[in-house]
Design goal:
It contains two helices and no strands. The protein has helices at 2-25, 28-39. The longest helix has 24 residues, at 2-25.
Length: 40
């Protein structure tokens, strides 16, 4: 049972991290970071 719970937890974490990264792509903060890198 512990293995099943661990796998389920990892799947949920992976799903949330994917949603979080997708949201981060559209935030202006990332664009600002990209501009700073390009200026360097």
């Amino acid at each position: 049972m512990d293995i099943i719970v661990a796998i389920g937890g990892l799947c949920i974490l992976a799903w949330w991290t994917r949603l979080f990264l997708n949201d981060m792509k559209y935030t202006p903060k990332i664009k600002i970071k990209d501009k700073k890198i390009e200026n360097q």
